[in-house]
Design goal:
Elements: H1 2-19, H2 31-39, E1 44-56, E2 63-64, E3 67-68, E4 74-86, E5 89-98, E6 101-109, E7 113-118, E8 125-128, H3 129-134, H4 144-169, E9 175-185, E10 188-200, H5 204-217, H6 219-240, H7 252-279, E11 291-299, E12 305-315, E13 324-336, E14 353-354, H8 361-366, H9 373-381, E15 387-392, E16 407-408, E17 415-418, H10 419-425, E18 428-433, E19 438-443, E20 449-453, E21 458-461, E22 464-467, E23 473-475, E24 478-482, H11 483-489, E25 493-497, E26 502-507
Parallel strand pairs: 8-14
Antiparallel strand pairs: 1-4, 1-13, 2-3, 4-5, 5-6, 6-7, 7-8, 9-10, 10-11, 11-12, 12-13, 15-26, 16-17, 17-24, 18-19, 19-20, 20-21, 21-22, 23-24, 25-26
Length: 508
């Protein structure tokens, strides 16, 4: 039931948002013009917030696997000081608001990287977009970065051709009202036209069918869209991958063939929607209990959309005391200085942490102030320090040392585990001094420092000597230590699965 519920909710959200991306002109307000102008926005300043409220039954349990997830009941994402310099460059000051505290941060995006500076963090973290562009999943000599530049350059032209085609063919919802309004936008009173639209779940299939039928009947525009998608997207990709597509004659015959295939698909989809409406199969989810409302505020002077409020409500068709019964999603946004000169505030990442597979949890957490909201959120709410490590014993396993599997020491009969693997799984940093044959471990959560010497059965913990159950051993390039010691030092517990001979390390 839950899987079905989530699937239908996702489909409902998608359909609702699609239907309210375009409406016909109504009561003197050219919504199509306003929406098309919105597609042409390349710079602005603004504010936005987005919230999700989950309402559970009287006995719904917000705790799972010893984690308290009650903070998910009411989440809000606030975005202030939004500065969009161009389509590839923007910045904002943001804040994740929860019942248990706020997590503030700043974010910036360029065509090269995305960076985040969390409040209380010594350094920003950033993701290099160039690495993504240069990734070649098909193992071909394709200049993905160059291709991306080409596609980015084509996006504005594609929006101008495809966007109006979609907008012009979307039907009006039944409930659509217009009124005059004066609103504060960035502190200035602005004369606006308020367009209020509502879509009930029971309207969705009919509106989608009308949209599909409109597209299928708009033959000339559909052919032009096919031509534009080919010219601006398919041809550049084919050319970069070495396909001889540039010289392909996408003439009337081929356009007609593609159009007929698309039209046949649209006709089949329209029939399916018609059958679904007649059968009532979707009424359980697409009914009047589920709805979307949107208020768009259009500038009377420029026809720009300056403000938008949205609320989406989805109710569980079979509510119980033990399920999430209602999901409410709300958002509001305001923009100003539309298509004016705007300078984004780009985060300096010269000393930042690269957000890739090499960044460990220990490095990330060590970058945070222990008194910061994010540190508390990760430790107390998300329980990031909770661990479950399952280590099968490698006795008798070929290449056990190469695989860094635990083993039973024949002298002490104690389980020996790979130090670096276990310590890093427990969010600690490990350094190795080859000259002294010593490993140093720093616990990210407590700051405890442990020094182990190969061949010694004594460890130094925060300057104090502690006896081990056996000597630290070097097997190949891997340091092994008695599991009991490492677990005790990191506040973990040990269990033994005798059936499959495996060590289990857990930490709540």
């Amino acid at each position: 039931m839950k899987k079905k519920y989530i699937t239908w909710m996702s489909a409902f959200v998608g359909l609702m948002m699609l239907l309210l991306t375009g409406c016909q002109s109504v009561i003197g307000v050219d919504l199509n013009k306003a929406l098309q102008r919105n597609l042409e926005v390349t710079s602005y300043e603004g504010y936005s917030d987005f919230s999700v409220e989950l309402i559970g039954g009287s006995h719904f349990d917000w705790s799972t696997d010893n984690e308290d997830l009650s903070f998910l009941q009411d989440l809000k994402f606030e975005m202030n000081n939004i500065k969009m310099q161009d389509r590839n460059t923007m910045s904002m000051d943001a804040k994740l608001v929860t019942k248990k505290g706020d997590v503030p941060f700043s974010l910036s995006i360029t065509d090269k990287e995305m960076a985040i500076q969390f409040e209380g963090a010594a350094k920003p973290v950033y993701f290099q977009l160039e690495d993504y562009y240069n990734l070649d999943p098909m193992m071909m000599t394709v200049n993905w970065a160059g291709l991306n530049d080409t596609l980015q350059n084509n996006q504005e032209q594609l929006l101008k051709s495809v966007g109006p085609f979609i907008i012009n063919n979307l039907p009006n919802p039944e409930n659509l009202r217009v009124s005059n309004a004066t609103e504060q936008i960035n502190g200035s009173l602005t004369n606006l036209t308020r367009v209020h639209a509502e879509i009930k779940g029971s309207e969705v299939l009919g509106l989608v069918k009308a949209f599909i039928d409109n597209i299928a009947s708009d033959e000339a525009a559909l052919k032009e869209v096919i031509q534009q998608v080919y010219t601006l997207i398919l041809a550049p990709i084919g050319e970069e991958m070495g396909e001889d597509l540039e010289g392909l004659d996408l003439g009337p015959a081929l356009v007609d063939e593609m159009f007929n295939e698309v039209k046949a698909g649209l006709f089949e989809f329209s029939q399916q929607l018609d059958a679904m409406m007649k059968s009532g199969d979707a009424d359980e989810f697409l009914n009047d209990n589920n709805y979307l409302t949107v208020d768009m505020y259009v500038d009377n002077n420029t026809s720009d959309i300056r403000k938008m409020d949205m609320e989406l409500v989805f109710n569980n068709p079979e509510p119980t005391d033990y399920d999430i019964n209602t999901v409410k999603i709300k958002s509001t946004s305001e923009v100003w200085n539309v298509n004016q000169a705007v300078s984004a505030e780009i985060i300096d990442t010269k000393e930042g942490l690269v957000l890739d597979e090499s960044l460990t949890a220990a490095q990330f957490v060590n970058n945070l102030d222990p008194n910061s909201a994010l540190y508390s959120f990760l430790l107390n709410d998300l329980k990031l320090s909770s661990k479950f490590i399952y280590l099968p014993i490698g006795d008798g396993v070929e290449d056990a040392a190469l695989l860094e599997l635990p083993y039973i020491d024949p002298v002490t009969e104690k389980a020996m585990v790979p130090l670096r693997f276990v310590a890093e799984e427990l969010d600690s940093e490990v350094t190795w001094n080859n000259e002294t044959q010593q490993a140093t471990i720093v616990d990210v959560w407590t700051g405890k420092t442990i020094v182990l010497t190969i061949g010694s059965s004594t460890a130094v913990v925060d300057g104090q000597s502690i006896k081990l159950e056996g000597e630290a051993q070097l097997t190949g390039d891997t340091t092994y230590v008695p599991v009991r010691f490492i677990a005790d030092q990191f506040g973990a517990e040990i269990d033994w699965d005798n059936e499959v001979r495996a060590v289990i390390i857990t930490r709540d």
